User: Which sequence fits this backbone?
């Protein structure tokens, strides 16, 4: 006789398998047809399900988008964490460069997914701060933040005089310092965010083909960016590792 627990477990496994099938369908549509093609009805058709039936799994299109976005964030974070851990025995600066290169490698091999996850702000409104998407985004954010904190605590890096910053900027970096439980002081936050803007900005331009008019190979430009970041953080730049 089948127990209620066995029946529940089987039902949960079937539900999880269906969720995975839904997410795979979203990814196929995104990669092959673009984000506009990812509708509830299109995803349902892709897996042989009716649109109304799919609502048993996700209450809205926004919920579906949030769940798949969380998947992509986790995948990217895992890639960066693996690069960090593979260089566990080297100085923190070398680990940071390895993580940045891993981030670029994922971005240029998954341009549709990269564009999808960064099409909206990483930090959602406060009412969504417990969502799976926000938690996955925080995990991604923590990879470089943790390394920057380690660098700050072990050897430090040049920072501006906080009072020299414009008042609005000073207030914002102070607020972010509070958000991260003051693991970095506001002046170090300013440097961390400046590095992130340079890195992320270049990646976005590359993935969105905004540099195609001049560059057929952006990798040396990216390495120049890493050299600049190393300078901002007072790190040695050992050059691009050999293949």
Assistant:
């Amino acid at each position: 006789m089948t127990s209620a627990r066995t029946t529940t477990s089987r039902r949960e496994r079937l539900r999880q398998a269906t969720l995975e099938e839904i997410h795979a369908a979203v990814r196929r549509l995104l990669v092959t047809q673009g984000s506009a093609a990812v509708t509830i009805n299109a995803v349902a058709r892709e897996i042989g399900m009716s649109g109304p039936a799919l609502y048993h799994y996700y209450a809205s299109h926004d919920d579906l988008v949030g769940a798949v976005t969380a998947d992509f964030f986790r995948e990217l974070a895992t890639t960066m964490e693996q690069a960090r851990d593979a260089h566990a025995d080297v100085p923190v600066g070398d680990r940071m460069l390895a993580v940045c290169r891993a981030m670029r490698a994922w971005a240029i091999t998954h341009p549709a997914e990269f564009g999808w996850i960064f099409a909206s702000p990483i930090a959602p409104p406060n009412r969504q701060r417990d969502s799976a998407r926000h938690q996955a985004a925080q995990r991604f954010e923590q990879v470089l933040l943790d390394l920057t904190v380690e660098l700050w605590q072990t050897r430090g890096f040049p920072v501006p005089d906080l009072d020299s910053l414009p008042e609005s900027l000073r207030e914002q970096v102070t607020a972010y310092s509070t958000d991260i439980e003051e693991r970095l002081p506001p002046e170090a936050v300013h440097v961390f965010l400046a590095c992130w803007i340079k890195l992320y900005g270049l990646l976005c331009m590359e993935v969105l083909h905004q540099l195609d008019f001049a560059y057929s190979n952006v990798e040396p430009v990216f390495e120049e960016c890493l050299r600049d970041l190393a300078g901002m953080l007072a790190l040695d730049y050992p050059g691009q590792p050999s293949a």
